[in-house]
Amino acid sequence: WTPFDQPTLPADFLLIAHRGASAYAPEHTLPSYQLAYDLEADYIEIDLQQTQDDVLVAFHDETIERTTNGTGAVSDYTYEELKALDAGSWFNEAFPEQKQFQEEGIVRLEDIVDEFGKEVKYYIETKQPFTDGQLEGQLVQLLEEYGLLENVAVTRQVILQSFSEESLLTLHGLDPDIPLIHLYHFKKEPAELSADEFDRLASYASGIGVNQSALTRAFGDQAAEWELDLHVYTINTYSEAIDAYKKGADGVFTDNLLEFIDPLDNE
Ligand code: G3P
Ligand code: CA
């Protein structure tokens, strides 16, 4: 709901569907991404991990307890083993007021791009980068195979993100045209980077992702000075997005896309 007497977000402000439309469907499952598409997110966000048999899967935690009926690390299982797990029932139990989901499984990145092609834009996080760059290599190869990197600096069909500078440098080496976002979680708030750190970051990344609680106007001004995009996580109300915008954000990661739908658009 956008009150008429409140400021509104500009049309180019990015709404990034955090783990899909994850307030309304189990995160990282196909229904979650389908809903994000239906709700016209600018990007669908995918956390990426590698299975024991080197398959790229959409999954946030290093271990599988929270969102499946299994136990242990993602990297301890083959994709076939992970695929057999129930990745939806936890959501039904945690959110009984929401639509219920049956037999949702862990999906591969390939399944997601197969499903949506160029109909959506992808904002993919290398969650578990390995020092040998294998995950990054596989990721870039898959995106190339699906034609998602054609003229990517202009189309921004794909944005890649990581908390790991090493992973971002590997990706930059593989294809310097891919827009990269360096993620930070500033535990010691407010957000602060030195001029040298901004210089270094700007040499390979096109922007910064930052936790909402650490964002300040001064940090937003610095990001603008270095001509870096600034995306903020995780924001679930319109008023918080307005606050982030006023501090210099160009977009937000949200679980809650319905918060951003203007009721007048649907009349
Ligand atoms: O990728 C931005 C934001 O999602 C980082 O936090 O833990 O949800 O991956 P996390
Ligand atoms: Ca993420």
Automatic annotation (TrEMBL):
One GO molecular-function entry: phosphoric diester hydrolase activity
Family matches, as InterPro entries: GP_PDE_dom (IPR030395), PLC-like_Pdiesterase_TIM-brl (IPR017946)
An annotated GO BP: lipid metabolic process
Gene3D superfamilies: Phosphatidylinositol (PI) phosphodiesterase
Residue span(s) of domain GP-PDE: 13-264
Domain of life: Bacteria
UniProt xrefs under PANTHER family: GLYCEROPHOSPHODIESTER PHOSPHODIESTERASE, GLYCEROPHOSPHORYL DIESTER PHOSPHODIESTERASE
Protein name: Glycerophosphoryl diester phosphodiesterase
